[in-house]
From TrEMBL:
This is Nucleoside hydrolase. The keyword Hydrolase applies. SUPFAM superfamilies: Nucleoside hydrolase. The lineage of its organism: Bacteria, Bacillati, Bacillota, Clostridia, Lachnospirales. CDD domains: nuc_hydro_IU_UC_XIUA (cd02651). Coiled coil: none annotated.
């Protein structure tokens, strides 16, 4: 009996998204991929998602195109990080895998209205999910859980306060975080605990194979661009790929700031009951007080086993080679 978790992945591939897809397609039951504009434009993110299904030998997984532009925000991209085509300086052919005709948001609505046992992974801006909720509010009761790579329990990257995925479309993120859908947030405070460098590139090259060579190429671009990389989206999906990778999480209230001059796009985490006396630990891992009694809408990932993650990642890439 297949006990793999059934998921839909909403993403904006993206170098780290590609690593996440490599992990998810091998370890989870991926029922569909929806592309969104984010790291680069939709023209490339949907192409890269289709390419990922072919790369991993799963062209049967349907791929849908969602929204290219944020709901209200001025357009923000990350092509300086991911390259104009989203996968560094790698040139790929147009995939034979065809894009589904149905709009990605409509696919989300249809899937979750018709199924009770499929969860959602989001690795990019939350535009598709928010638009689907606005179109069909019953989705708030139909999506069992969202695993979200986005936000931060501490500081941002796109700005001092905001992480990229949330900053791209803060209004969409606000809709999703206020929806009442259970959310697991794997933000920058977690993913910064993973550093990949040229030694990891060489390890992927040593594994070889179609997946290993491609992974080495895109990781090398990312490492050369900034000395090291965290491949954030892959760290996030590890929560469901191997539950021993995330070693500590805390449930608290998280709200998305949409109006602040300096804090727009910030995921504002309520840590008031978690402020202890240790000056070297700004956020205690257990409640120090029970004064504010926030119920908590988000499970925030806090601690990460980098050694375990690397084992899972490299073993997964190696498994693709063994399948060929």
């Amino acid at each position: 009996m297949d006990t793999k978790r059934k998921v839909i992945i909403d993403c904006d591939p993206g170098i780290d998204d590609m690593f996440a897809l490599i992990l998810c397609i091998r370890h989870l039951d991926v029922r569909g991929i929806v592309a969104v504009g984010g790291n680069t434009g939709l023209e490339y993110t949907q192409r890269n998602a289709r390419f990922a299904t072919e790369l991993t030998g799963r062209p049967d997984i349907p791929v849908y195109a969602g929204y290219d532009m944020p709901m209200l925000n001025q357009l923000v991209r990350a092509t300086e990080v991911h390259g104009s085509g989203g996968i560094g300086d790698i040139e790929i052919r147009e995939p034979e895998k065809k894009l589904e005709k149905e709009h990605g948001a409509d696919f989300l609505i249809r899937t979750f209205m018709e199924n009770d046992d499929i969860s959602l992974i989001t690795l990019g801006p939350l535009t598709n999910v928010a638009q689907a909720i606005l179109k069909e509010p019953e989705l708030k009761k139909r999506i069992p859980e969202i695993l979200c790579m986005g936000g931060s329990a501490t500081s941002g990257n796109a700005t001092p306060a905001a992480e990229f995925n949330i900053l791209v479309d803060p209004e969409a993120a606000k809709i999703v975080f206020e929806s009442g859908i259970p959310i697991k947030m794997a933000g920058l405070n977690l993913t910064r605990q993973n550093h990949m460098d040229m030694a990891d590139v060489e390890q992927l090259r040593a594994i070889g194979g179609t997946v290993g060579d491609f992974a080495a190429d895109i990781l090398e671009f990312s490492v050369k661009n900034s000395d090291f990389t965290s491949i954030c989206d892959a760290c996030a999906v590890a929560w469901w790929v191997d539950d021993q990778v995330i070693t500590k999480s805390i449930r608290t209230q998280v709200d998305v700031e949409t109006k602040g001059e300096f804090t727009r796009g910030m995921t504002v985490c309520d840590w008031r009951d978690f402020m202890g006396t240790d000056p070297e630990q700004e956020i205690s891992r257990e409640k120090c007080w029970n004064k504010y009694k926030t119920s908590g809408n988000v499970e925030v990932a806090m601690e990460f086993d980098q050694k375990r993650f690397r084992e899972v990642l490299f073993d997964t890439v190696r498994s693709y080679k063994e399948m060929n």
